[in-house]
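Protein Record: Sequence and Backbone Structure Tokens
======================================================
Scope: a single protein chain, as residues and as a discrete description of its fold.
Tokens: labelled as protein backbone structure tokens, with as many entries as the chain has residues.
Position: the record begins directly beneath this header, with no further notes in between.
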Amino acid sequence: LSSNLDEDCHLKNDTIRNQLKFFTVDRLKMNEMPIRALKIFSSPCCTDDPTQKKQLSKRIEVENNDAAVLLMVFSCCLFHTLVVTDDADIYEADEPIPKLHLRRYINVMRKLLFRACWLDEIFPTMSRQQRPHDWNSNFFGISVISAAVRIMKDLYDRSSRRPICAPDLWVVEDLLDKELARCKGHEDYIALLHSPLLRRCPFLVPFKRRLKLFDRLVTTDRVLKQGSNETQNLKPGLHVRILRGRILEDGIAHLNSLGKNLRQRIVVSYYNQAGTIETGLDVGGLFKEFWTDLSALAFDPNYALFRITEGGDNCLYPNPSSEKAHGDDHLLLFGFLGRILGKALYEGITINPQFAHFFLAFLRGDYNFLHMLPDLRTMDSQLYQNLMFLKTYDGDASDMSLTFTILTDDFGSSEEKALIPNGANVEVTNNNKQRYIGLVAKYYVCDRIRLQSEAFTRGLWEVIDSSWLRLFDPNELQVLISGSSEGKLDISDLRAHTRYVAGYTVLDVNIIRFWSVVSKMPSKSQRDLLRFVTSCERPPPLGFGSMNPPFTIQRISIANDDDKLPSASTCFNTLKLPTYSSEKVLRAKLVYAIESGSGFELT
């Protein structure tokens, strides 16, 4: 893989040397697919026996070129086989190779890519004249690694829909930890983002570390654009007047034309129906309230810009019939919604919308169009099952009387669309059913929402650079947008980063009672509490330490337990907690307030 691979295998790095593995042909049957002729097994490149070690070293010197060639052949065959392999083949039929062997391949390639893209950096990032004299990568090595990168990306994308292996099998522990600590400013983080490893195989880096890199990219860029209270150079920002009851309309009117200027600080002033400005200075809380309310309105399926997926998961994807609902302005609205999402990510605001897997893949800008059929399953599982039945049907496909057309139903209006020219007169047969299946998947996943998705993505990229989003797979991108939705809340993390105001301290008896009550709550009740205070039931991706404004508990003095219920200011992430007489009363009042959604009106 490099001109001095034998030297690397000897002494350059003990850890890598011990982990290097080689592929060997176990048997070759000419009547089978080439991919089936390769059986993977591995042997360590190091042994404690000095005699065996010497013999193995000589064997590596003789065979390393053969091993690299074989790895190249295997990777190319696997890649081309995966082109026509859907998820059902891999997970249920163990094709093209058993999942066990896929996991072994992932394990080997992880180490190889780590070596090539991080330790050796074989991909040229400078001109030939600028390269040092000891630059030892060759074009064959780059071809091997490029083939491995393509396969690993394909398998990682599949694994984001349905896990192939344990998450730890993809990552190299401690990768980027020291490098992140050494970065001092925005330019340092950008340089790290453009390293060969993160450009080609970011999945090798643990998710939390990529989240931290994204957070530092956004935060340092935001400080450059907006200034900071900490450095006492906060810029005045753009002032926006918003009328209560016209949040979406005023938001579009004032903000949609800003483009990249949305990265600037936005200062919100609310007006009531009488035209009187509401009291209060926007130091971040009013903007959070405005943006949270704006996103809730804009992404509501009842607004007819988005639909929800079938199957009960209720994830959002662009409404193919948006033009019929909103006329010629529908693409303008999608662009604005993209900017809404981008601004939420840029400001670190966690919002509720859950997007469909395939739509999240579009947002990164590198969608794998070979995965349209598996992605159809996340949109319409029934249609996917019907197509899979046709794919595996042993009889004559012409018996089903299908043609290369589909029937659409938008707002009660049915229309037949041809998948190919003169499709109504082309019968689906055993010879062409694979093409029919692919075209149906392409129409539903891509074609009918292409304009809406492109408009949304353009708006998003005006605020958040697409290279920042390509650090994550679709599931990870959803966590970035709306926080983690799995497992119990980390109450110890929430408690460690809670701020106390108006007389409360960490040692106050009411605060001790509060945390005792919260720690004993069921997981659902804990999430309901978080939604009650912050308007989102999921914690920030990097934990409560990154919540802005921080989770706050404000003291409300009362003379009688029945005077007030707990209430919240979601724009400031503040819980207004009265001084109840006992833990029992506090628990009852808190649960009642959460379940009834008391909010501002009962403060």
